[in-house]
Fold:
Amino acid sequence: MVFEGEGLAAFRGERLVFAGVGFAVPAGGALLLRGPNGAGKSTLLRLLAGLARMEAGRLRWGGQDALADRAAHAARIGWLGHQDAVKPGLSAAENLALWGGPVAVRAALAALGLARLAEIPARLLSAGQKRRLALARLALTPRPLWLLDEPTLGLDAAAEGLLGDLLAAHRGRGGMVVAATHVPLPLPGAAELVLA
Structure:
């Protein structure tokens, strides 16, 4: 399975953000999106998710039009944006309950170093802990394509190591990762796409 884009272009308002963008991510592969602020990394991620309008180009999943069935495409995607999408009034475990049963939730929390905080209301978590909770949601999402926007935002060195383990496990199962970043990520062998 390969996820690929060809000749992609997008506008933000009246401004052309990028044009002629192409890539290919095979099963188990990773692609790093790099470039200065405003270069279009987040816009490209939204386009890949089917959330932004594509002015030109094609997205293919296994050689077929990836957006022909938008519901099927959405079901392929695990998303991590700038916002962590954590409900402050729910505990850490309750935030994940929609995504998995109690055993899976405990395992995901443990994988991200949050087991001891399972019953703590999310509003009491630090920014880094909330980011790890959002990453734990990805661990519960058996979707082949992870689209990550600045995944290390708020993480300390130990948490970055946990993220590396999570990404390696996902790729080891044949999962794909496309990540926008300004910093090195624990994605050995990742291809790189620089947006100017």
Q: What stands out?
A: The CA atoms of residues 106 and 123 lie 19 Å apart.
